[in-house]
C-alpha cells in the first residue's frame, strides 16, 4: 500500500476508537420526578444520557389534581406542552432545546386543532412524528414525548 493509504487507515482507526470510547463513557441518569405525586411512578420523567434528555410522554393532565383538563384536544395539547415545559425547566432547558417530538392523538381528525396550539409553542420546529392510537392513558386525547439536547 502507498503511504497515503496507511495514513488514511490510521486516521480511520483513531476515529473508531474515539467514537467507541465516547459511547462507553456516557453516563445515564434516571431523574426522579419533580412532581411529589409521581415519585412512586414506575418510570422516570426524564432520562439523561450525556447532554441528551429523553422525556416521558405527557398528557393534558393538570398535575395538581391529576385529572385531564377540560376543553378537548386544544386544552389538552396546551396542558401537555406546559407539563413538558415544567420537566424541561427542572433541568435548565426550554422548548428551544427540543429536537424531536412524538405526538400520539386519540383521533387523527384532531390533527389540525392540535397543530394550531403546537405551532404556538414549538417555534424552532423540531423533528416530529404524529400518529393516532386508541387507548391513550387516562382516556386522554393526546400524549407528547420529546427529546431535548442541552
From TrEMBL:
Keywords (A to Z) from UniProt: Hydrolase, Signal
A Pfam family assignment: Ribonuc_L-PSP
Keyword hit for Hydrolase: yes
Entries under SUPFAM superfamilies matching the protein: YjgF-like (SSF55298)
GO terms of molecular function: hydrolase activity
InterPro entries: RidA, RutC-like_sf, YjgF/YER057c/UK114
Range of residues in the leader sequence: 1-22
Assigned protein family: Belongs to the RutC family.
UniProt-recorded name of the protein: Rid family detoxifying hydrolase
Amino acid at each position: 500500500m502507498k503511504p497515503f493509504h496507511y495514513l488514511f487507515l490510521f486516521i480511520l482507526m483513531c476515529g473508531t476508537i474515539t467514537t467507541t470510547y465516547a459511547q462507553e463513557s456516557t453516563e445515564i441518569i434516571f431523574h426522579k420526578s419533580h412532581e411529589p405525586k409521581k415519585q412512586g411512578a414506575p418510570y422516570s420523567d426524564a432520562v439523561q444520557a450525556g447532554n441528551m434528555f429523553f422525556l416521558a410522554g405527557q398528557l393534558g393532565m393538570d398535575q395538581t389534581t391529576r385529572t385531564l383538563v377540560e376543553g378537548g384536544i386544544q386544552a389538552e395539547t396546551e396542558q401537555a406542552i406546559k407539563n413538558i415545559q415544567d420537566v424541561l425547566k427542572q433541568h435548565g432547558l426550554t422548548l428551544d432545546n427540543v429536537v424531536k417530538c412524538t405526538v400520539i392523538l386519540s383521533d387523527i381528525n384532531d390533527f389540525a386543532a392540535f397543530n394550531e396550539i403546537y405551532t404556538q409553542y414549538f417555534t424552532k420546529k423540531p423533528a416530529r412524528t404524529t400518529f393516532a392510537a386508541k387507548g391513550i392513558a387516562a382516556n386522554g386525547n393526546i400524549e407528547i414525548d420529546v427529546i431535548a439536547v442541552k
